[in-house]
């Protein structure tokens, strides 16, 4: 009998130990997302306490505060976006998956205590600081241009690629010898760039998660400029205004002809809750709207969502509004796809929807005055500053115009 009781106690102790909740411990971790059989995409995060961590990409700091635990596993929900890291905790290491459920995507995820994104393993005599004329997918029908902007200090490189539809986030990495490695992870996109460099060329490969890759070629050109973001999307001949009706979260149909928008300057934001460049723009617009809505300016967003149902799409929209503090309306324009050609069907007066985001500036009479394609956010430095100056000056110009027209 005594032996039986001791056995029961032993089994109980083991069972309790198996159900013991493990927690993240304070410190800096190096994470890896598996790109393919031989490549990993690294990023750095710091656990502040069991319920808070920060992800670092060059100057960018992303605070994560939705962390749950169950037994030996941690569930890390990335801010705003759908991405979720699920991992087992063992001796200050993590082993699991990065999952984007609605897109049916996942990547192997590992992390352990370390503060080095990429190891510095070889001296480099090459410095890529400056600006680079870049072509992605060269020699194909799908090619597109970009502008690389980089800073280098010894082996360490930071910067980004600007395209005509937006930027590739805060990139951070190293050059070892003539081998370039750059990465970023923001909870929605996981980007890795590798390449071979000289003083005047970079030839490499761009990986987006484990589902997409394409080559790129760059040459040093400090005078290179992309096409103006204000010239890429236009109204078709015969149109002066924008017309749409889409539902809000309450099920109400909202149109530009509603009283709320009459005799006001209106900015229509074509966007998606899944889009990091849209998030950057939404943060800027939310702050601007808070400070200027009493001046006669309105912002209205049209969300094009990959979520398969309206209910799920509106849950993503509410999450974005709550996390960013957006008080202007976000309407649901499309579900089930982020196809730009499908988006164009919803806004047929545009020659094309080339980018998420796209901003359409409408004056007090209801006339479209400018269409700005894409958004170059904080990672672009001077370009972001230039955008904010141009935006403020142009909206002020529209607000200062006098009109007695009741066109809208």
List key phrases describing it.
408 residues, Lipocalin, 3 domains, nine-stranded antiparallel beta sheet, globular, 18% helix, 40% strand, Glutaredoxin, 5 helices, eight-stranded antiparallel β-barrel, disordered N terminus, alpha+beta
Notes on the structure:
The protein is α+β, with helices and mostly antiparallel strands and 408 residues long. The chain has helices at residues 2-18, 276-292, 310-324, 340-346, 382-400; strands at residues 27-34, 40-49, 52-57, 60-64, 66-70, 73-77, 84-90, 93-100, 105-113, 130-136, 144-153, 156-163, 166-167, 171-176, 179-185, 190-197, 201-208, 212-220, 245-247, 253-255, 265-271, 297-304, 330-334, 358-362, 368-373. The chain folds into three domains: 24-113, Quinohemoprotein amine dehydrogenase alpha subunit, domain 2 (Lipocalin, Beta Barrel); 130-220, Beta Barrel (Lipocalin), CATH 2.40.128.120; 245-400, 3-Layer(aba) Sandwich (Glutaredoxin), CATH 3.40.30.
Q: Can I get a quick summary?
A:
With 408 residues, the chain is an alpha+beta fold. It has helices at 2-18, 276-292, 310-324, 340-346, 382-400, and strands at 27-34, 40-49, 52-57, 60-64, 66-70, 73-77, 84-90, 93-100, 105-113, 130-136, 144-153, 156-163, 166-167, 171-176, 179-185, 190-197, 201-208, 212-220, 245-247, 253-255, 265-271, 297-304, 330-334, 358-362, 368-373. The protein has a 9-stranded antiparallel beta sheet, with no helix packed on it.
């Amino acid at each position: 009998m005594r032996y039986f009781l001791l056995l029961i106690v032993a089994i109980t102790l083991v069972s309790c130990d198996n159900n013991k909740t493990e927690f993240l411990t304070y410190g800096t971790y190096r994470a890896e997302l598996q790109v393919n059989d031989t490549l990993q995409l690294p990023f750095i995060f710091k656990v502040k306490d069991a319920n808070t961590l920060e992800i670092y990409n060059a100057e960018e700091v992303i605070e994560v505060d939705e962390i749950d635990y169950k037994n030996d596993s941690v569930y890390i929900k990335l801010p705003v976006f759908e991405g979720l890291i699920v991992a087992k905790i063992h001796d200050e290491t993590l082993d699991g998956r990065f999952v984007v459920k609605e897109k049916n995507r996942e990547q192997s995820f590992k992390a352990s205590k370390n503060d080095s994104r990429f190891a510095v393993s070889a001296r480099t005599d090459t410095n890529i600081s400056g600006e680079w004329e870049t072509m992605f997918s060269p020699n194909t029908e799908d090619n597109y241009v970009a502008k690389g902007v980089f800073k280098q200090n010894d082996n360490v490189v930071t910067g980004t690629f600007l395209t005509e539809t937006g930027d590739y986030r805060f990139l951070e990495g190293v050059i070892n010898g003539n081998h370039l490695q750059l990465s970023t992870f923001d909870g929605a996109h996981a980007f890795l760039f590798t390449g071979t460099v000289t003083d005047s060329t970079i030839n490499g490969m761009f990986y987006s998660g484990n589902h997409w890759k394409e080559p790129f070629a760059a040459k040093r050109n400090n005078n290179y400029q992309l096409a103006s973001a204000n010239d890429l999307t236009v109204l078709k001949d015969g149109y002066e205004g924008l017309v749409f009706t889409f539902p809000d979260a309450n099920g109400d149909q909202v149109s530009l002809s509603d009283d709320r928008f009459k005799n006001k300057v209106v900015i229509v934001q074509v966007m998606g809750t899944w889009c990091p460049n849209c998030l950057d723009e939404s943060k800027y617009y939310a702050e601007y709207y808070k400070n200027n809505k009493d001046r006669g300016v309105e912002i209205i967003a049209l969300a094009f969502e990959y979520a398969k149902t309206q209910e799920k799409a509106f849950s993503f929209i509410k999450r974005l509004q709550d996390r960013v503090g957006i008080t202007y309306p976000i309407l649901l324009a499309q579900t089930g796809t982020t196809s730009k050609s499908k988006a164009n069907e919803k806004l047929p007066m545009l020659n094309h929807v080339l980018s998420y985001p796209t901003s359409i500036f409408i004056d007090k009479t209801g006339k479209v005055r400018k269409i700005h394609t894409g958004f170059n956010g904080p990672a672009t430095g001077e370009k972001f500053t230039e955008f904010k100056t141009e935006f403020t000056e142009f909206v002020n110009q529209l607000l200062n115009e006098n009109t007695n027209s009741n066109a809208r």
